[in-house]
Each structure stands twice: as structure tokens, then as C-alpha cells.
Amino acid sequence: MIMSLIQQRRLSDTIVERLETMILEGALKPGERLPPERVLADQFGVSRPSLREGVQKLVAKGLLVSRQGGGNFVSEKLGSSFSDPLLTLMENSPEVHKDLLEFRHTLEADCAYYAALRATDLDRQHLQAAFDDLHACYSASPHSSEARAKESAADARFHMAIAEASHNMVLLHTMRGLLDTLKRNVATNIGGMYQLRDEARERLVNQHFELFTAIMENQPDEARRIAGEHISYVQEVLAHSLEAETRTARAERHRFLDEFAKGQSPLKK
């Protein structure tokens, strides 16, 4: 029998594996700076040259970016599922907004369920901070574009904190890949909803509070139900808006044809 040789594993490969796991689990986020080399070497119990070799391997893989004199960062491109040109197309398509809400209905309901089931004390601290930031936005006027952008970013961070607390890496990185699209979608939605219904903001405030409470109190089924109802409410309001816009456009087309039939071309007015 021919026995294959057992190859000794390089220490840098173990370091690579540890850092990859931290990235995969969301402990290290896109754009985040790694701790200083000395601190990280002490934490892993390895020499600085071994750590440096592991970091360079991750740089070569495109997972880390090394900046001269600035340290090492997790690549900001991680999880970017959509290119900027595609984002522009999606922003201008009502159908895509509708599709994204349908996808969010399934995705965020599952995130909420598993977050309520699995959240650790540290997850709850992060979720509390994200909820506090979002709640602070609700005290400001929603009528300026700057305020809506700030609120949409806080809303997206809140839902990302829920995804992180789910401890499901596929759900987490799917949400992270949609983050830019999600922020744009939320900004568009809240601007339209606040104009359409006076009670919309109060409903969203209450829904987010109920969702936050269900997760913090370890109620997975309740968290899933509330997350689903939250997205369903947004879908309902925006569907009515789209129907109203469609009716208005149809009425304008009929007016155009009626005036044209009477020999009064509206183009000459």
C-alpha cells in the first residue's frame, strides 16, 4: 500500500482560515479596518510575520485591501451583487421596486424568525443601537430629502442588524449584497408613503417597535409574522399609489384622443 505524505500546514493558512470565517460570519464587515497587526497577532497567538503572510494571501484573493500607511481593510466590494449601472436601471423601474418588496417579504421574515431564535447578548446590543438610531430619525421631519435619506439608511441598518443576528450566513450576505438597493428602495418608499397616507409613519414606527420587541423577547413566530405584515403594508400602500398613477395616465390618454378626434390637437396648445 502506498501511503501519501502528510503535509504540515503553514501557520499563515490557519490565519487565513480564521480571518475568512470572521468575514463570512459578518464579524468583519465590508469596508471595516482590521485591528492593528500587533493586536491581531496577540489575539491569534501568532508571530507578526506569520500574520502578515496570511493577510497578504487574503489581499491576493481580493478579500482584503492593504493601504499604504493606513492598515488593512475588508474589501468594500464584498457582497455587491449589483453593479452601479444596474442600480440606476432598477431605481427607474416600478416593476423592480415591486419585485424587491416581494423578495424582501420572504427574506426579512426568515431573518426575523432566526434572529429571535438565535440572537446572542452581543447581537441584542447591536440591534438596540440600530433601533435607537432609527427611532431618533422618527423625531425629525420627514419632508426633506436629507431627512428621508438619513431615515432610509437607519432603516437599512436596522434590518441588517436583524440579518446579522439570524446567524445564517446565506441570509446575511444576501441582505448585505442588497444593502445599496435596499437603502434606495426604502428612501423611495417612505417618501411616497408619507405623501399618500397621513398615518403611514406612525404605522411604520409601531411595526418596527413590535418587530424589535419580538426579537429581543425571543418570539420567532411573532417576529416572522410582524416582519411579513410590515412588508405587506408597504406593498399595499405602494400598490394603491401605482394604481392611481395608472388611472391618471389612462385618463390623460383618453383626453388626448378625445381632443384629437375633435380636431383640437393638444400639441398645439
TrEMBL record:
Source superkingdom: Bacteria
PROSITE patterns in alphabetical order: HTH_GNTR
Keywords of this entry: DNA-binding, Repressor, Transcription, Transcription regulation
Record's keyword annotation contains Transcription regulation: yes
Pfam families membership: FCD, GntR
tRNA-binding among keywords: no
Xref: InterPro entries: GntR_C (IPR011711), Tscrpt_reg_HTH_GntR (IPR000524)
CDD domains in alphabetical order: WHTH_GntR (cd07377)
Domain HTH gntR-type: 9-77
Annotated protein name in UniProt: FCD domain-containing protein
Source organism of the structure: Marinobacter salexigens
